[in-house]
Amino acid sequence: MTGMNYDWDEIVVPNELVDAWGPEGSETIVAGLSIDYLRFQSESLKNLFKMEKQIIKKHDSETPVTTNFHSLPNKMIDYQKWAKDQDIISYDSYPTYDAPTYKPAFLYDLMRSLKHQPFMLMESAPSQVKWQPYSPLKRPGQMAATELQAVVAHGADTVQFFQLKQAVGGSEKFHSAVIAHSQRTDTRVFKELVDLGHKLKRAGSTILGSTINAKVGIVFDWSNFWSYEYVDGISQDMGYVDLILDYYR
Description:
Blueprint: H1 31-59, E1 68-70, H2 79-82, E2 90-92, H3 102-115, E3 119-123, H4 142-153, E4 156-159, H5 188-207, H6 222-229, H7 240-248
Parallel strand pairs: 1-2, 2-3, 3-4
């Protein structure tokens, strides 16, 4: 019976014989097959991470070990199960230029909830990214506002940027950086980053390690995420994340 597998060898890999489709390559006409495969993918990748972490810990038992989580949330990985094996939750935040402010806010809260403690803002963009249909420069003050939203309002304990120096080639050569192609330190972006650093240094002792006593809770669950979106017959316009965001907003 689908949903009653006892061994990973019983998992059916998505293929045309079971009508696979969808951007993740894991959606089938039989929802249980898709859900089984997503669980298999998440657990297999987690086992790889645990193996790599164990190797690192043999040489350094003190430095925290983590791996980047990122937005949407990622349907292929159950962050809630992965969180148990992270020494600290780290998150890459790249909201689109037209994203409503409540969407990154929800994702920050989700990251903080994974271990019920502050998280690490592992990556963010000093200005423009290179992968959106339109990738505008961030307006004056916009970068600081998005970083402070994560740190002050939603429990991040770090602010870090990708990348330090702008690449001269490759797919991310037009992705913004702390130091642009010009190599100058008198650019607007560089000056705004320095100013942000000063502000965080002044506020750090007040907000570092802070937590919040929430008055309202919203349940986000990866099994429900998978089950809801892989069951046909209700409405293709109903997305699990979109519904959660409606309530969160």
